[in-house]
Amino acid sequence: MKTYSQAPDAEGHVEKMRASHHEELEGVTIAPLFVFDSEESSLSVLKHGGYWAAATMRITPLKDRALGIADAQIVIDRACWTKYSARQRNALVDHELTHLTRKIDKETGEMVTDALDRPKLILRKHDHQFGWFDEVAERHGEHSIEVQQARRLVEICGQLYFDFSTPPAPTKRERKVADRADLNG
After folding, report:
1. What is the CATH number of domain 3-123?
2. What are the residue boundaries of the structural domains of the chain, listed by start?
3. pLDDT > 70: what percent of the chain?
């Protein structure tokens, strides 16, 4: 059963990443929360869209803001957080903060506020989003959308996401074994 708790050791990471990279979020209140299975468990439990996630960003509804709840919440899978280095934690928090942006009035260029005079927020989508099947890429190669998108990503971004000096990617079987180990380990 999922359990939630405040995440005080994540607050410093939120403030550091906001000050370093997200000045536009000044004045926006953001509450980090941990989600976990039980106090003793080291299993990851957070999912987003049916997929495992290390963290998610959520804009707080107006009625909850009226109760004094933060403008937005970062929900962090505690099992992941405890295994991450400080730099990985910063990267995770930075990723989630990048989802959050203040709404700007197109005519005036001013930041829009809600009925409570709090910043109106929007969730930003990822720059890249993929829904791939390895077996389709294996069966159809360059004719599959999976391979076409992967090649396009490399063409546009170069080695930003992939280090081509590393050994070849693991096989599907090796990936499944590694994924199970990560989730249970």
Report:
1. 3.30.2010
2. 3-123, 134-184
3. 94
